[in-house]
Amino acid sequence: MANLVRIGVRLANKSLFAKTEVTSVRFISGKLLRGQDDRPPKPAPWNYKEKSYTILNYWTDRTTSRLDENSKIVVVEGPVAAGKSKFAKELAEELDMLYMPEANLDMVYINDYGYDLRQLDEQLPESCRSFDVKDFLRTPKHRNTATFQLMQYNTKYSQYIDALAHVLSTGQGVVLDRCCYSDFVFVEAMFSQGYLSKAAYKGYYEVRQNTINELLRPHLLIYLDVPVNKVQENIKKRALPFEKNTQVLTPQYLSVMEKNYKQKYLKELSKHAELLIYDWSEGGEVEIVVEDIERIDFDNYDIHDPKCKDWRRHTEEDWGALRNKYADHKNDLMNYFNVPLHHVPEMVIDAEDAKVYHDIMNNAPGEVYQRGFNTDMGDTGVLFKISLPHRDTLPLRERNLAK
Fold first, then answer.
1. pLDDT at 37
2. Does the global pTM surpass 0.90?
3. Can the keyword Flavoprotein be found in this entry's annotation (predicted)?
């Protein structure tokens, strides 16, 4: 009898998770070509932010039913003030993809209720206060610089998981303004100028090594190349308050970034993703880039080629497992950041400071209870709620550049 049951399960698996051919995935199509598409409509997007996708759903909601030629991850990279954000927004519009702004700590410090936790800094010990890119540019040798850089990587990593969950759950592609794969470029520049200690530098790579291999690399990387002298001109031209008098954005710092972008990052990631590089010294036309993208064949590799290998899956079960991993198990992936860094003195907070921090933060507006259970912040129906929020999805919040 047991043998019959096992045979029945095998047969069911064979029919439900048989090899799946996903049509029209080789090329990315711009808005014009997609407007001529006469294929039947896809299923409605799965609300991965609020709704679980478990193994039981593999059978009733197939991941590949939503995937098409534009179900891809595109990353836009380049130096400071290269015009990446503007370009990435326009590109996402042209490709009918979701635009994700560069991951920034405004996404973390401003909670789900719109309260900016940085308002509490005066009540906190210095070791526990907020520290973002503006603070770094003003005081790059502050003790919180190491923690800031690790938080930056953590936030970019969190956003990239959201991008993967979005593609696999909705079928819509994503254009990211920078991503976690290039974060080391900044670390190398900071370390070269003495803003990170050797211990903090090594600690960062310990965390990176423990986390980065859990992700799927992007399909396409677009690099907007701007020489250092032009970057400095652009920085002066945009005249952001926190960039005006900084001692950080020197030719030396920017040159180290450029070197690591071109000699390490682009070289390594291009083994796994398609790469387009443009001279963006004077800007450029998004339409021309779209034409170049439409010519790329993302399936022109043999089975052993590392290019786009992360995205070659042959069964519904494989696709469903990936979707479940990034949509339902984000917290498990973020736990890979729990690498002990006791050997980095500037990242160790003593017990008394930590107690003050937790006492204040746990009583901040919107932080007393889990999201959805703070009646003082307007949450209703608390007595009838029987489950916690499904996942923590970062808001698509642009960095506030005005201050």
1. 64
2. yes
3. yes
